[in-house]
Amino acid sequence: MALTPYVAITKPSVGTGVSKSDFGDDVVDDLNRLHTLEDMSIYIPLNDATPLTTSAKGYWRVPSKFDGGSLIGVAACCKDGSSSGEIELAVKNGATSMLSTNITIDQTETDTLTAAVAAVISAPTLAVGDFIEISVVQSGTGVTYCACELTVRPSA
After folding, report:
1. Structural domains of the chain, count
2. Does residue 26 form part of some domain?
3. What is the DSSP-derived secondary structure letter of residue 144?
4. Is residue 87 part of a domain?
5. Tens digits of residue pLDDT in 10-68
6. Domain span at 108
7. What CATH number is associated with residue 51?
8. What is the distance between the alpha carbons of residues 39 and 63, in angstroms, rounded to a whole number?
9. Is residue 22 one of the residues assigned to a domain?
10. For a tag site, which of 7, 54, 117, 121 has the least CB within 10 Å?
């Protein structure tokens, strides 16, 4: 069986059409779906098998692909949830908080999917070279393998 050579599909620009043959029904019928194809999830581990502490931090440098882009989602998870108290994580761009409500994982939970209070992004804009810091505000008790997920979208 002969393989078809790879053909790059160019990013549509304003005023050009988006064809179903190039992008499929889902993308053409819903342009938000097209944008999600560009999104990238960045996974930032904060600890390992050692229990999480408030001194744990993780970092990510914004690459040129996301210059002028946006932080569009945040989440967190851990292998072992807190046996006492919630986990709270802050996201900062330099000294500026990117969240008006920090990320939380409720006591005994292992993911933000079921958090009683959802995180709220307040400063989403990114620039190449920005140094994003994830820091632990509250560590809970006995939390292992905690990580933060940032979902970022390039500028249009």
Report:
1. 1
2. no
3. B
4. yes
5. 565 655 655 566 655 555 556 665 665 678 999 999 999 999 999 999 999 999 989 99
6. 40-153
7. 2.60.120
8. 13
9. no
10. 7
Token pair for 13: 């620009």
Nearest alpha-carbon partner for 80 in 140, 26, 23, 37 = 140
Write down the pLDDT at residue 39: 85
Q: How many CB atoms lie within 10 A of CB 100?
A: 10
Task: Give the DSSP letter of residue 52.
Answer: P
Residue in the block written with tokens 């990117």: 98
* 3-state per-residue secondary structure call for 108-136: CCCEHHHCCCCCEECCCECCCCCEEEEEE
The whole-model pTM stands at 0.77
C-beta of residue 46 within 8 angstroms of C-beta of residue 56: yes
pLDDT tens sequence across 109-120 = 999 999 999 999
For residue 131, tell me if it sits in a domain. Answer: yes
